[in-house]
Amino acid sequence: MAKPLMAKATAVWLVDNTTISFKQIADFVGLHELEVQGIADGDVAQGVKGFDPVANNQLTQEEITAAEGNPLHKLRLKIYAAAAGEEKRRGPRYTPLSKRQDRPASIYWLVKFHPELADSQISKLVGTTKPTIQAIRERTHWNIANIQPIDPVALGLCKQSELDQAVQKAAAKKAAEGGVMSDDERRKLVSTEQSLGMEAEPKIPGSIEGLETFTLGGGDENQRSEEEPVADADSFFNLPAGGGDEEEEDDQKA
Prior knowledge:
- 48% of the residues lie in helices and 0% in strands.
- The protein has helices at residues 7-17, 22-29, 33-41, 61-69, 103-113, 119-126, 130-137, 152-155, 160-177, 183-188, 192-197, 219-227, 233-237, 243-253.
- It is mainly alpha-helical.
- It has 2 domains: 7-83, no CATH class; 89-194, no CATH class.
C-alpha cells in the first residue's frame, strides 16, 4: 500500500490538528500504533515539525472528516507523490557498482548455455550493452581469456523467474518459426525446474546407427534343421564299413 511522504511529520500534524484515532493514523502513515501514541505523549519525534498532508495534496479534508466521525474508516491517500512523474524505465537495468565486474561472466554463461536468447533479452537480464554481448559471443572481448561462465542468478544479477521467462519466450519464438531442435537445444529452452523433471531419452551410439532394425538371420536355418536330419560323425568322414578289412586279411593268408 502507498504511504505518504514524511511519515512521522505527517503523523505529528494529524495528532496535533485532528481527532483521528492513533490506529487510523498508524495505518495511514505506516507506523506502529504505540509509536503514534508516543508522538502524542511527546516521547517520540521531538522537534519534528508537522507536515500538512492536505496542503501537500496527499489527503483531502473530506477524508479527515470521515475518519473523525468513524473510527473504523481507513484514510486513503489522494496522490502518491513519490511516484509522480515516474515512468517505466526502458533499456538495460541498473547494476550496482559492486556487481558490474561480474557481468562479463554472466553474459558468457548465457551465451554458452542459452544461445537462443537474443541480445536484447540478455541486455535486460544483466544490464549490459549489445556491443559487449557481441564481443563475448564472438570471443573478441579484451579479457575473454580470463572470463569464466557463471550463472547470473547465482551472481544476483537477475532472478530465476526472470531467466525462466526469457528462456520460455525464446522457446515460443523458435517454435513459431518452425525450427528443428535437437534434444540438447530443447532442454535448454525450458526452465530449470522443467528440465530437471524430464526423463532421459535413450540414445543409440553413432557406431551402430541405422542398425536398430537389424536382426540375425537365423530363422531359415532353424527351420531347415527341423526338416533335415542332423548328420552324424561317420557321414562327415565317409568311413568304409568294417567288413572290408577282414576280407583283405583273408586274401593275403591264402
